[in-house]
Amino acid sequence: MERAGEPTYRVRAFRGAAATVGGLPHDELVRLARNGGLGDLKGIGKVTALAVTEALNGDVPTYLRRLEDTADVDLDEATSALRAALRGDLHSHSDWSDGGSPIEEMAAAARALGHEYLALTDHSPRLTVANGLSADRLRAQLDVVEELNAGFAAEGGAFRILTGIEVDINADGSLDQEPGLLERLDVVVASVHSQLKMGAGDMTRRMVTAIANPHVDVLGHCTGRIVQAGGKRGGLRPESAFDAEIVFEACRRFGVAVEINSRPDRLDPPKRLLRLAYEMGCSFSIDSDAHAPGQLDWQRFGCARAVQCGIGADRVVNTRPWDERHASRDAPG
Ligand SMILES: [Zn+2]
Ligand SMILES: [Zn+2]
């Protein structure tokens, strides 16, 4: 449902029903399903009760079957090759900010996709509508991630969670988090989330100031446009105005990846800007910006757009193993 972009409340209904069902003994469930009592349980409605009954009978629930029939639109060869070349994702959110799921669940879904790394980039303090993390909460999150990574390492797998942040670019181009804390993070995605309508001159200065900040790795959804109505944001939103040549030249010069944001409601930057950034020699990061586990799969949309703009795997930073990427950025000169 998440991959299909269904509203969060519907996903929640199924998660809630799963939690209720998971707490009951099997025999009790079978009895309730027989006498039509499932609907009386907390969090179980008509649709979820039917899915539970079908599952108890050993069938794939009709609801799931319908989703699966329509979910996997076939990708063309070049797009699947680029998607297969991705080793990780540099932009995702957990329920610590405005995501819907715990860090563990996001990590489990990323591993299931075959990723070697997932950057956890919850929002910064000023984005209060998204429950942005204060410096103290971010420090606490770093401890949690360290513990989870120790668990992954003990299992012997290659997967790890990269520490990170999606930090707000303030109106003056400064970043909305303590520099010392940004320094400690594996991945800093910098994004504009406020005053998106400022004049092009000021917006260009603002973005370039952030790009020149040595802590920044990725420029998130650079135009801020919203192309799909509905969801939590409500309406559509036009692109912010800025001098794209100056902004992309700064990205190239300072080694900041231009994000190809894969969310169906963003698809940012638009293709004319993607082509420009490519011609100017920029690197890219194809990110899901997932706010739920199933949305991690949205990278395929970004891959399709990259292919349409002639961008190959060699220009995409998250086709490289994390250590290699990190080492190259920190190399002197
Ligand atoms: Zn954002
Ligand atoms: Zn985000």
UniProtKB/TrEMBL annotation:
CDD domains: PHP_PolX
GO molecular function terms attached to this record: phosphoric ester hydrolase activity; zinc ion binding
Protein name (Swiss-Prot/TrEMBL): PHP domain-containing protein
Cellular component annotations (GO), alphabetically ordered: cytosol
Domain Polymerase/histidinol phosphatase N-terminal stretches: 88-171
InterPro entries tied to this protein: DNA_pol_lamdba_lyase_dom_sf, PHP_dom, PHP_phosphatase, Pol/His_phosphatase_N, Pol/histidinol_Pase-like, PolX_PHP, UCP036978_PHPhdr
Gene3D superfamilies per UniProt: DNA polymerase beta, N-terminal domain-like, Metal-dependent hydrolases
Provenance organism: Planotetraspora mira
Taxonomy, superkingdom: Bacteria
